[in-house]
Write a structure and sequence with these properties.
Elements (H helix, E strand, L loop, with lengths): L3 E5 L8 H14 L4 E5 L5 H4 L12 H5 L5 H4 L1 E2 L6 E3 L8 H5 L8 H6 L8 E5 L6 H9 L2 E7 L2 H20 L5 E10 L4 H14 L3 E7 L2 H5 L7 H4 L4 H19 L7
Parallel strand pairs: 1-5, 1-6, 2-4, 2-5, 6-7, 7-8
Antiparallel strand pairs: 3-4
């Protein structure tokens, strides 16, 4: 079996992309899957949130994209959680400039991951909150996109922009890419606005909205500062349990039925 490669993306920042990547990875590993996180954000938050010191990295995804190292030698194990990470640090910010004149520059990550496609069941790509060459590499490498979003008014506009971007990517460079699902994050059930936006999402995207909802949760927010996924930091926290439920829902979607989505 080859890896299922999922890009976690949203052009809007602050929607819980990295939190979703780290906690979903730990939850899938808990359910017996072999998981790799690809940190494509120069901030390296998924790297740090997995207990990996980005300042002391000898190699990172930066060298992988430039063809100076391969994935196998750069991957490291998360401190706890049972998954691996292709880490990132500030060096990655220079990749766009250095790749701009290279042939097939948007295919670099896809080609690199082909080396380890038999080693992992799931590859989760943490994309930066912008449409740049790094994000494009993630979308070209992926077979599907998971879109975390906060149920607020401006999030709907950002979602519209992202869907438009995915249509362009599908037409130009990756005809196989599909929307896996929309994930409602940092959800406050007491907010009327959150309830209204959630209802609009469900009405418009229907079965593309995950049933699982990730609540606002202090313990989940604290976990990254300890370099741990929520499931390790506080297994009983509502947020950690929600991501475990999400992992089960994702496995049901991907391992029980083929992807069907419209962009």
């Amino acid at each position: 079996m080859t890896s299922r490669i999922i890009a976690v993306a949203n052009q809007k920042g602050g929607v819980g992309k990295t939190t979703t990547v780290v906690n979903l990875a730990a939850s899938l590993a808990e359910l017996g899957r072999r998981v790799l996180i690809v940190d494509l954000d120069p901030q390296g938050n998924a790297t740090m949130g997995s207990g990996i010191a980005k300042q002391s990295l000898m190699h990172s995804v930066y060298q992988v994209l430039l063809g100076e190292a391969d994935v196998k030698e750069v991957c490291v194990a998360a401190r706890e959680g049972g998954y691996h990470v292709l880490p990132a640090n500030r060096d990655l910010a220079g990749a766009e400039i250095e790749l701009v004149h290279e042939l097939a520059r948007e295919q670099r990550l896809k080609n690199a991951l082909a080396q380890v496609e038999a080693s992992y069941d799931y590859v989760l790509i943490d994309c930066p909150p912008s449409l740049n060459l790094l994000t494009l590499n993630g979308l070209v490498a992926a077979e599907s996109v998971l879109i975390p979003m906060v149920c607020e008014y401006y999030a709907l506009e950002g979602l519209s922009d992202l869907v438009g971007t995915l249509r362009k990517v599908r037409t130009a460079v990756n005809p196989k890419i599909e929307i896996l699902g929309l994930l409602r994050t940092m959800f406050d059930a007491r907010s009327n606005l959150s309830q209204q936006v959630s209802a609009q999402l469900a009405q418009h995207f229907r079965n593309k909205v995950f049933e699982t909802v990730i609540p606002r949760n202090i313990r989940l927010a604290e976990a990254p500062s300890h370099g741990l996924p929520g499931l390790v930091y506080d297994r009983n926290a509502r947020g950690a349990q929600a991501y475990l439920t999400l992992a089960g829902e994702l496995l049901t979607r991907l391992e029980s039925e083929p992807l069907h989505a419209t962009l």
